[in-house]
Specification:
The protein is of the alpha/beta class and 252 residues long. Helix content is 41%, strand content 16%. The two termini are 23 Å apart.
């Protein structure tokens, strides 16, 4: 029995509205190419090692790179997420993704340059900041260099937060400006206070336990080997790998 991955026709019907229009000659079979792209990303293969059933590796890579540069895979994830909103309680968190030497070498500037790779205690990393819905499905993604604080990710994602009654986050997001910004949006923060705070911050401990859903989400997308280990030098391409994994796991 074949271990190759194939998108179903039902899944393709949901994806097609987000495809860019073909320019000039008709595109090669979308289902075959996208199935191959998913197989490569999930298994962490080099493009030249793509199974023959998916066609020429160069065709797979060219489609992957072109659509990644266009932001197609990120739009697919956000588009499918918007079709079934479940945003009563959202969560925000961040996780480290290890950068392979092929992504962080070859003339890398100090601080990561434009690749969004930075030195941390665990080595060269990229940090993924994510917002999930009530069920723990990713609805917003943002990447920075590994040494960037959680505050920076929260600030970048704040304007795109959906209307929600609650936001769950760990104490790394305990900042007065963040709490005030959430209150202005009509969202109640469920965030423990930092230990350095002189005044104890009250929060709903029972509700806070649901934050483990975003932790489980991170664990599941890291099952995709080209997400858990970053091989792509281009940040936009790497973000596309994360968005593709999130789409296949949670939204198709």
């Amino acid at each position: 029995m074949s271990n190759l991955y194939w998108l179903t026709e039902v899944q393709m019907a949901r994806l097609r509205p987000y495809f860019p229009k073909s320019q000039g000659r008709p595109r090669v079979d979308d289902r075959r190419i996208l199935s191959g792209i998913i197989f490569i990303n999930r298994n962490g293969l080099r493009w030249c090692d793509a199974p023959a059933a998916y066609g020429p590796p160069k065709t797979l890579y060219n489609r992957w790179k072109r659509w990644s540069d266009m932001g197609v895979f990120a739009r697919i994830m956000t588009g499918l997420a918007a079709e079934a909103p479940d945003n009563k309680t959202i969560s925000i968190d961040a996780t480290y993704l290890k950068a392979h030497r092929t992504a962080s070498s070859l003339g890398l500037k100090k601080g990561g340059g434009g690749r969004l790779i930075g030195q941390t205690n665990g080595g060269m990393n990229t940090k993924l900041h994510a917002v999930t819905d009530t069920s723990g499905r990713p609805i917003r993604l943002f990447i920075t260099a590994g040494q960037v604080s959680d505050y920076t990710g929260a600030m970048a994602l704040l304007s795109s937060f959906p209307n929600a009654e609650w936001l769950l986050a760990d104490r790394g997001y305990d900042a007065d400006w963040f709490r005030e910004a959430l209150s202005e949006r009509g969202t109640r923060p469920c965030i423990p206070g930092r230990k350095s705070r002189k005044k104890v911050v009250r929060y709903d401990k029972r509700r806070y336990k649901r934050r483990n859903r975003i932790e489980r989400m991170f664990g599941r997308i890291k099952d995709w080997r080209r997400v858990a280990t970053r091989y792509d030098r281009c940040p936009k391409v790497f973000l596309s790998a994360i968005a593709l994994a999130a789409t296949v796991i949670f939204w198709l």
